[in-house]
Amino acid sequence: MAGLQPTGRRGVIAIEPPAESFAGMLRRLRAEAGLTQEELAEAAGVGGRTVSDLERGVALTARKETARLLADALGLDGAARAFFEAAARGRSPAPASPPPAAVAGGVAAATRTLPRDIASFTGRESELRRLTGAVTGAGSRGEVVSIHTIGGMAGVGKTALAVHAAHQLAPQFPDGQVFVPLHGHTPGHPPVAPEDALASLLLISGVSPALIPPGLEARIALWRDHLAGKQLLLLLDDAVGHEQVQPLLPGSAGSLVLVTSRRHLTALEDARSISLDTLPADEAAELLARLADRPGLAPEDPAVAEITGLCGYLPLAVGMLARQLHHHPAWTVEELAADLVSATARLELMHAEDLSVAAAFDLSYAQLTAGQQQLFRRLGVHPGTDIDAYAAATLDDTDLATARRHLDDLYERYLLAEPARGRYRFHDLIREHARSKAAADPPAETDAALIRLLDYYQHTAATAEALLGHQTRTRPGPVTVTARPATIPDLPDRTRALAWARTERASLLACLDHATRVGQHERVVALTAAIAALLRLDGPWTDAITRHATAVQAARHLGDRPAEAGALIDLGDARYVTDDYPGAVQMFQAALGIYRDLGDRQGRANALSNLGIVRRMTGDYPFAAEALEEALGIYRDLGDRRGQANALSVLGSVREEHTRDYPGAAEALEEALGISRDLGDRRGEANALGNLGVVREHTGDYSGAAEAQEDALGISRNLGNRLGQANALSRLGNVRRLIGDYQGAAEALEEALGIFRDLGDRQGQANALNNLGIVRRQTGDYRGATLMQQMALGIFRDLGNRGGEAETLSEMGTLHRVRGDLEQADTCHRQSLALAREIGSPWDEAQALAGLGRCALAAGHATQAGNLLRQALEIFQRIGAAEAPDLLAELEALTRPPPAH
After folding, report:
1. Do the beta carbons of residue 744 and residue 763 sit within 8 Å?
2. 658: confidence class by pLDDT, cuts 50, 70, 90
3. What are the distances in angstroms from CA 252 to CA 175, 206, 889?
C-alpha cells in the first residue's frame, strides 16, 4: 500500500493497508455494508455489546465462532473471508493459501464484497423481473457490458433493490461481485473521485499498490485490461452523476454494472434505467408489519394503512417508524398513527438513532445550486400539488426559460415527479421538507411569492372564464390582481381555455381554499367567479353550490353589492343545474333586485335570462317568455351578441313547448345558431342545434332532427361537455324511436341516462327514463316500461316540472290502455289534461285528449271517442304538430262505414 499515492481527495474505498487494526477493519466493512452495530449484531446472531467492544478495541480478538458469524453477516467469501477471520483471531492469513486473483507482489483479492441481502426485503417484484430478465438476456451471454441504472428519490430503496438483485444474479458472474459506495450523498463524505474509486477497485481485484499508476486515464486502462475476458458484477452505489460512473465501466463484454443514483443518469450511454417509485400501499403495509415484528400486527390493520399513507409509502420512512414500534413495546400502532396525524412536522418523527428522513432529504437539497434551492423552497409555498413552468416562473419571479430549466433540474435529481408532460409534483414528504425550508426564508419574500402566484391563477382563470362563460359578466370580481403576471399561457380560444382550466383545476381549487381559509374575501369572490364556468361544466355541482354560497357571503362581508349580485347569479346557476328550481329562482330574483337598484342593465339582462330558463323548466311559460323577451331587448341594446344567442335559444324552446309556434321557434333558433357560429361559440352552437332538432322532430322532419342532434353530439364530445352529450343523446334516442329504430333508440337513451346520473342531473334522468319507457312499451316490455315511467314521474313531481309530469302521465295512460287497464288509463290522461291546461301547453293537451279518445274507443264508446280525437286533431293541426296526419287517418278509419257484404 505504500506505493499508492493519495490524490488529495477523500473517499478512497479500497481495502485498507495490512497495518489496519481488526477494530478498524470491522468498522469499515460494517459501514460499507450499510449496517448499524445493532443490525450487524442481529444479522450475525451475536450480542450488540460484542460488536461494540470489538469496534472500540476493548476486545482485541474474537472467538472463532464469533468471527465466522460476523463474516457470514458481512457477506465475505474466499480470500477476503480468510483474511477477516484470521485478523479477528489475531493471526495472519495462512501463506500456503494465496488468493487466486493476486498478482505478483499484490495483496489478497476481495472479489465478493456485496453487502448482505436484507431479509426483510419486500415487494419490487416487477422491477426485479425486469432487471434480472434483461440481464439474463444480454450481459450474461457476453454480448455487451450490461449497464442498468436504478434511480429514485432519497429513501425509496434503490440500494436495497440493487443488492437484492445482485445476490440473485451472482451465480452468473463467477469472476466476482463487487460493491463500490460512491458516497454521492453520505454525511461527512464528499463524492468519491473516479481515480480514487479505480484505485480501490484495482486493490480489491488484487493488483499490487505498487503497480497502480497515477492519473485517471492510466487507471482506466489498467482496470479495463484487468477485466478483459472476465464476468464481473459491479454495483456502483449512490452515484452523483455520469462523470463519476463512466470511468469505472468495464471495456469488454460479459460484465454487469448496476448503478444507483438520486439523479436521472441520462448521459450514461447504453444504460437501461429503472426509476423507483414509492411502494404500493399493500407492500408498504407488509413492510411495516414485518419490520415492527409485533404479535398480531397484520398489514390489513387500519392503523398500519394510516401510518404508511402518512409516510407517503416511502420505504425509508416506513422502516424507521416500524423500528420505533419494534423497540418501543409500550407504544401502540394507533398512538403512533395519531401522533403522525397531529404532528405539525411529520419529518421530525421519522428517525432511527442518528438517521432521519429529513437528513436524507437535506443531502439532496445541499447539492442544488442557489437558484435551484430557491425554486425548491418557493414550490413549498404552493397551496396545491401540481405546477407548470408558467406558475413556477411567477412564484419564483423569474423568466419562463429559467423556470423550465430549474424544474427539469429538480426532476433530474428526483426531487420532483413529472406525472404528465410539463406538470411537476412533489412527493408528500419532500413537499413537507420544502415547506420547512421555506419557513426559514424572510416572511416578506414568502408572502410576496404567494401573492404573485395567486394573482397569476386569478388573472389567467378570469381570461379563461371570459371565453367559457355563457354570459358576459358586468365585472369579474371585486378586485383586480396586484400586477399583471409577466408570463402567462396563450389562451386564444375556448378550446385552449377549457384545456388550461381543466389541467389547473386542482391548483385553482387549492388556491381558492387557501384564500377562504385565511379570510381573503376579495380573493374568494374573484377566484370563485373565475372558475364558475369550469364548475358548471365539470361539477361536482354540489361542490359548486358550496363554493358560490361562500362567495356570496364573502361579498356581503365586503359590502360589495355588484360582487354579491354576480355571486348570486353563479349560485343560482349551480342550483338550477342540480334541479333546485325554487332555490335558483330565489337567487336570480335577488340578483335582479340588486342590478335594478344599481342601474346595471347587463346584470339585469343576465338575471332575466336565467329566470326565463328556470321558469321554462317549471312550466311557467308565460313568465319565461316575458323574461326572455325583456332580456333579449336589453342584450340587443347593449350589442351583447352572446347574450342574444343564449336568450334566443331558450326562447325558441319556450315557443316550441308552450304555444307550439314551430315557425317562430325555428326562426329564433336559426338566429341563435347563426350568432353562435359567427362568434365561434361551439357550446352555444350545440345548444341551438339541439333545440332546433326538437322543433324539426315535432314537425315531422325526422331526418333533419337526427342530423341536428348528431351535430350537437359531435360538438359536445369535442368540447368534452358531458351535459351537452347527454342532452343530444337523449333527443337522438327519441328521434330514432319515432323512425322505428328501437335498438338504436335504447342504446342512445341508456348512454344519456348514465351520463345524467353521473352528473346528478335529475331533469335529464327523468326525460331519458320517460323515453326509455316508451321504447320498452313499443317493444312489448310492459313491466320495464312501467318501472321507467314511474321513476320519471316521481322525479318530475319532485322537481316541480309540470310539463314533464303532464307528458309522462299521458304516456302512462297509453301503457295502461295497451295492457287493458282502461280505468287507470283514463285517470292518467285526465290528470295530464288538467296539468296541460293549467300550464297552457297545447301539445300536452292534445296528447291527453287523444289518449282519452282511444280509451273511449277501446271501451266501445265510438261517438265519444270521435269527439275527443277531433278535439286533439284540431290542436295538432293548429300548431303544425307531426302527430296530426296519423291522428287524421285514425279518425277517418273510425268514421268510415264498414264494407258491404
Report:
1. no
2. confident
3. 14, 19, 94
Q: What is the dihedral of CA 234, 238, 239, 241, to 10 degrees?
A: 150
Please compute, for residue 22, the number of CA atoms within 13 A of its CA located in the half-sphere on the CB side. 24
Q: Is the peptide bond before 194 cis (omega within 30 degrees of 0)?
A: no
225 contacts 202 by C-beta, under 8 angstroms: no
Angstrom distance (rounded) from CA 309 to CA 337 = 10
Classify residue 589 by burial, with Cβ atoms within 10 Å: 0-12, 13-18, 19+. middle
In the 8-state DSSP scheme, what is residue 112?
Answer: B
For the segment 641-652, what is each residue's pLDDT rounded down to a tens digit? 999 999 999 999
**113, 206 contact by CB (below 8 A):** no
Report which of 628, 413, 386 is spatially closest to residue 500, judged by C-alpha positions. 386
Q: Are 671 and 684 in contact (CB under 8 A)?
A: no
CA distance 165 to 167: 5
Distance between CA atoms of 65 and 858, rounded to whole angstroms?
Answer: 105
Q: State which H helix or E strand residue 35 sits in.
A: none
588 compared with 122, residue with greater pLDDT: 588
Q: Is the model's pLDDT at 520 over the cut of 80?
A: yes
Q: Mean of the per-residue pLDDT values for the chain?
A: 88
Q: Are 256 and 146 in contact (CB under 8 A)?
A: yes
- 769-792 burial string, b = 16+ CB within 10 Å, else e? bbbbbbbbbeeebeeebbebbebb
Q: Of residues 606 and 680, which shows the higher confidence score? A: 606
pTM: 0.74
Categorize the per-residue pLDDT at 1 as very low, low, confident or very high, splitting at 50, 70 and 90.
Answer: very low
| Angle, vertex CA 316, rays to CA 313 and CA 320, nearest 5 | 105
pLDDT digits (tens, 9 = 90+) for 694-736: 999 988 899 999 999 999 999 999 988 898 999 999 999 999 9
Strand partners, 177: 112, 233
Write the DSSP string, 166-182: HHHHGGG-TT-EEEEE-
Averaged pLDDT for residues 474-480: 59
Contact 771, 737 (CB under 8 A): yes
Q: How far apart are CA 365 and CA 426, in angstroms?
A: 13
pLDDT at 18: 38
Q: CB-based contacts of 890: which residues, under 8 Å, 6+ apart?
A: 869
Beta bridge partners of 261: 151, 239
- Tracing cell 361579498 back to the chain, one arrives at 555
Q: Phi/psi of residue 244, each to 5°?
A: -75, -30
In sequence order, the 6+-apart residues with CB closer than 8 A to the CB of 476 are 462, 465, 466, 526, 529, 530
Averaged over 830-851, what is the pLDDT? 92
Asked if 196 contacts 13 with a C-beta cutoff of 8 angstroms, the reply is: yes
Q: What is the pLDDT of residues 91-133, one digit of tens each?
A: 654 433 333 333 333 475 657 889 888 878 888 988 998 888 8
Cα 58–65–75 angle (5° rounding)?
90
Judged by DSSP in three states, 104 sits in coil
- As a whole number of angstroms, the distance between CA 795 and CA 402 comes to 56
Q: What is the DSSP string of 164-232?
A: HHHHHHGGG-TT-EEEEE--TTBTTBPPPPHHHHHHHHHHHTT--GGGPPSSHHHHHHHHHHHHTT---
Q: How far apart (Å, rounded) are the C-alpha atoms in residues 305 and 324?
A: 16
More confidently predicted of 23 and 11: 23
> Could you tell me if 449 and 378 are in contact, meaning their C-beta atoms sit under 8 angstroms apart?
yes
Angstrom CA distances, 815 to 593, 665, 746, 810, stand at 46, 31, 18, 9
Residue 468 neighbours by CB under 8 Å, 6+ apart: 494, 497, 498, 501, 533, 534, 537
Partnered with residue 259 across adjacent β-strands are 149, 236
